[in-house]
Amino acid sequence: MFSVHLKRIILVSLFCFSSLNAFSQFKSVFRQKEFEKKFDDIVKLYKSNNYIDLFNVVSQLKSFEIDVLKSKNSKLIVDYYYNCASFFVFFSNFNETNYYANKGLYFSKKSKDYYFVGKFYEIIGVSFDLIGEESKSFEMILLSEKYLTKYAPLKDRVDLYYNLNQSYYRKKDWPKVLKYGFLHISNAEIFKEKKSITMPLFIADAYMHKNDLAKAYQYLKTIDVNAIPKDQSYLSKCRNYYHIYGNYFMKIGDYKNASMMFLKSREFAEKERKKDLINSIEKAQSEKKIQQISHELDKIKNENFHVLQNNLYKNSIIILGIVLIISLLIIIKIQKSRSAFKSNANAQLQLKNTELTNALEIKSKFLNTISHEFRTPLNAIMGTLSLLHEDENNSDKLKIIENSTNYLNNLINQFFEYNFISKNGLKLVVEEKINLEVFINNLIASFESLYLNKNRTSISIDEKIHQNILFDSTRLTMVLNIILDNAFKFTDNGLIDVNLKFVESNEEFQKIIFLINDTGIGISEEKIDNVYDLFSYGSDEINLLYGGTGIGLALADKIVKLYDSHIDIQSELGKGTSVSFCLSFKKDMLNVVEEALITVPIKDRSKIKVLVVEDNKINMLLVTQILKNNGFLFKTAFNGQEAVECVEKENFSIIIMDIMMPIMDGFEASLIISELKKEIPIVALTAISEDINKEKFENSNIKQVLNKPLNVDELLFVIDKHCY
Q1: Nearest to 399 by CA among 389, 390, 407
Q2: Where are the alpha helices (DSSP H) in 389-429?
Q3: At what angle do helices 114-130 and 134-151 cross, to 10 degrees?
Q4: 3-state secondary structure of 191
């Protein structure tokens, strides 16, 4: 029986190809001539009005596809899907275009054939345009531009410039309409390619919107409406021609000619509506005819099947009976054995499930404990370093220690973040204010000071991007830190180029592509598919020379997948690497200022009394020394119970509360204190994960969470903020 998919192909084919005077315009392109001839011989059957031939065409194309895939020749496979996609898009068949184009995109990416990656994105973009999906079409055309600009010769970009011109025309981006219109016309003339006869029309309209009427008229008068080919889009092109010409006459005050042009535009619009109506009727008739043919073929097939069944039935009925009796006896025996085995297996499975549950619980507790035990001493080291920086004589030596400590801290954070995402598999909605320009510049500055390999850096942010966004800054920082760290690490005396490109936006959200290019050592073709694997390295030699854990890109890819995206890596050994990902950001429509730059009105610090609750004596000494150096009053408590007793006896401006403590932990103490004196703000300073314990922090009435290792500036800012 013919599948629903097959019937859909034939149905669309009937009213696409019943009259194909334009068929000869389609040209297939194979890199092996014998396959090109075979493909051409198949699709030529579409000239026929014979319905059976149309069924045969579909069948032959499918058979050809099977043969092509069996060849395992990547070039032949890519060529086949490209020609099929081009064929169907030529005749405005969206479903089949997308089927063949997406198949081709998969195989061209797999074979690293980036020229055809760009061509397939272009075809998909055009197919979305056919059904009015302008946003998806624009996204695909931009991806096509990315690949074709890099991998396609200028001659093969003529159609790309036409599609970019159309996309920006719909968006009313007049400078881009002019840019790509000129590129299309000039390159078509240079390479003697076919150029759009109506391209000057869109250029003229763009000039009219820029109020340059002289140039608008210069392009309008070059268009010969009688030369517009009478193809499927003839009526639409004529309607647009007269409408835009009418707008020109309106702008120059020639209302008589404007009226005539608008009248002709309406005439062509009416013809277009009538044509659409006729096509709809023909489509319905074709569909009915296809259903009749399909029904007849199914009927013939069923009749043949029943004849075959009757012939087989007589010869096989006795054998079937004997086999059935033997089978029943075997089944009874097996069932008895299986019942006993199943009971034993269920008991074993229950035991294994219990062991697995216990193991997972132990793993979770172990990681929480390790997190606390790692970050607590790191907090003491990093905090002490910040105090020692006051002595400028030791600054160079301290910088070495500080860089090593920061590296260890980042590694620990990556390890626990990877574990958290792998375990929970969810996206937390965190909205923090970020100014993209400040954010990116700060990241680059931190790497320039860390790496001394004389790299040049370049930052480019699309002017269309709304700079102030709401997003999870911690996870965005982690992703970019991983990518930038690789770029700086594997590049010596080269260029690190960071680009933020605008894709699309609405009133609330905007989509941005982050593109980080470097001129470093690159990745070989055989290794690039493995870069997302955990603990994966380019080679043992690279691991020895440059170090690293192999967690980074695996974690970065997991993070962006939480936001329905992925990391794309393009690289060539010895020439560099390009890493990109696309995210959607919520716009912050208020005036965003970096929190660290806000001047908070505060009291005299000598009048602010801080209760520090911390069971680790080294960390206690660190925090109290910071408070002392900055003029605060303070008192200490070494567990939650002592903290409650202090609050009962004295008043405090703010409480800095550790969480994991003996006798009474920080959660319980915070809850009791908030009931005693709810006006005192409580800020947690802890090494445990805020993500995992989010609900506990909220239920304990803790105002804010600061993570260890401690950032001294952040601590001072938070105290000032809550004590104004």
Answers
A1: 389
A2: 395-424
A3: 160
A4: coil
Tokens of 93: 């068949």
Cα 654 to Cα 333: distance, rounded to the nearest angstrom: 77
Contact 613, 658 (CB under 8 A): yes
Q: How far apart are CA 400 and CA 251, in angstroms?
A: 69
**197, 229 contact by CB (below 8 A):** yes
Q: How confident is the model at residue 92 (pLDDT cuts 50, 70, 90)?
A: confident
pTM: 0.40
Tell me how far apart the alpha carbons of residues 82 and 28 are, in angstroms, rounded to a whole number. 9
What is the identity of the amino acid at 656?
I
pLDDT value at residue 465:
92
Contacts of 695 by beta carbon, 8 Å cutoff, 6+ apart: none
Q: Residue 568 and residue 586: Cα distance in Å, rounded?
A: 23
To 10 degrees, the CA torsion angle through 326, 329, 332, 336? -110
**Three-class SS state of 575:** coil
Q: How far apart are CA 318 and CA 534, in angstroms?
A: 60
Strand partners, 514: 500, 581
CB 120 within 8 A of CB 85: yes
Q: Phi/psi of residue 8, each to 5°?
A: -65, -40
**Which residue is it, tokens 């803790």?**
702
Tokens of 242: 């007269």
CA 370 to CA 584: how far, in whole Å? 34
Rg for the chain (alpha carbons), in Å? Answer: 35
Q: Give kind and range of the element (H or E) at residue 17.
A: helix 4-17
Dump pLDDT digits (tens) for 160-175.
Answer: 898 899 899 989 999 9
Task: Please check whether residue 709 is in contact with residue 381, taking contact to mean a CB–CB distance below 8 angstroms.
Answer: yes
Tokens 């009435």 label which residue? Answer: 701
Show the tokens assigned to 316.
């096989």
Q: How far is CA 275 from the centre of its chain?
A: 41
The first and second tokens of residue 108, run together, are: 């061209």
Question: Is the confidence at residue 451, as pLDDT, over 80?
Answer: no
The pLDDT value recorded for residue 560 is: 85
Query: Looking up tokens 């000032």, which residue turns up?
Result: 720
Q: Which two tokens stand for residue 590?
A: 């208020």
Nearest to 466 by CA among 498, 506, 497, 430: 506
**Per-residue tokens: 398:** 């301290």
Write down the pLDDT at residue 93.
73
The region of weakest confidence among 149-163, 203-217, 556-570 is 556-570
Check: CB of residue 520 under 8 Å from CB of residue 502: no
User: What pLDDT score does 287 carry?
Assistant: 53
Contact (CB, 8 A) for 376 and 697: no
Provide the pLDDT for residue 518. Answer: 93
CA distance 106 to 98: 12
**For 488-545, what is each residue's pLDDT tens digit?**
888 888 899 999 999 999 988 999 999 999 998 888 777 777 676 654 545 444 443 4
* 25 pLDDT tier (thresholds 50, 70, 90): very low
H/E run at residue 340: helix 255-388
Q: In which element (H, E) is residue 249 found?
A: helix 234-252
State mean pLDDT over 389-408.
54
Please state the φ and ψ torsions of residue 684, each to the nearest 5 degrees: -80, 135
Residue 593 three-state SS? coil
Is 566 a residue whose pLDDT tops 50?
Answer: yes
DSSP-derived letter for residue 548 is -
| Residues whose CB falls within 8 Å of the CB of residue 258, separated by 6 or more in sequence, listed in order | 246, 247, 248, 249, 250
